[in-house]
Amino acid sequence: MLESELLAPVRACGARPDEGNFLTADQRAAGEAEWNQIWTAEPWEGTCRARQTLEWARRHPDDPRVPEALHRAVMATRYRGSDAEAGKYSQQAFALLHQRHPKSPWRIARRIGTSRLADLDGLGPIPIFPSLAVP
Questions:
Q1: Which string of DSSP letters, residue by residue, matches the chain?
Q2: 135 has which bridge partners?
Q3: In 60-88, which positions are buried (b, 16+ CB within 10 angstroms) versus exposed (e)?
Q4: Residue 98 belongs to what domain range?
Q5: Which of 15, 44, 51, 70 shows the greatest Cβ crowding within 10 Å of its Cβ?
Q6: pTM of the complete model
Q7: Other C-beta atoms within 10 Å of 50: how many?
Q8: What is the pLDDT of residue 39?
Q9: Interval 81-103 mean pLDDT
Q10: Is residue 67, in this structure, part of any structural domain at all?
């Protein structure tokens, strides 16, 4: 899923990424069909992304990309197309992110009132844009 996210700008420009010689023509066609099915399913894209991210995060708990992926999954359920199940997967991704990665800069702040961001676990301020956080 993260690879697809990285390839989105390439696909948007109409370019084809180098798929290597290890995939057969049938596998490439099946992958393209799956990509098109997911891409055109706009109303539930956020839910699909969150569900697949949760499955991947649970299979690979030690992968350093998991906190960012979980953060993006929660954001996808809020800002991408979602369906009735979006909240369930969003809550699971949020909980997994905070339970398994409590010190990650990808933790998500909850809004309190209208403008204040709460620190969920007393570890200090939560950066909204972790990549811009000052060490």
A1: -HHHHHHHHHHHTT------SSS-HHHHHHHHHHHHHHHH-GGGHHHHHHHHHHHHHHH-TT-TTHHHHHHHHHHHHHHS---TTHHHHHHHHHHHHHHH-TT-TT--PEEETTTEEEPSSSSS---SSGGG---
A2: none
A3: eeeeeebbbbbbbbbbbbeebbbeeebee
A4: 44-132
A5: 70
A6: 0.52
A7: 31
A8: 67
A9: 86
A10: yes
User: Would you say 102 and 123 are in contact if contact means Cβ atoms under 8 Å apart?
Assistant: yes
| Contacts of 54 by beta carbon, 8 Å cutoff, 6+ apart | 70, 73, 89, 92, 93, 96
CA pair distance 72, 90, nearest whole angstrom: 10
More confident residue, 42 or 34: 34
Number of domains in the chain: 1
Residue 24: inside a domain: no
Residue 125 inside a domain? The answer is yes
**Is residue 70 a part of any domain in this protein?**
yes
* Rounded (10°) angle between helices 86-100 and 66-79: 150
Q: Which of these, 62, 65, 71, lies nearest to 129 by C-alpha position?
A: 71
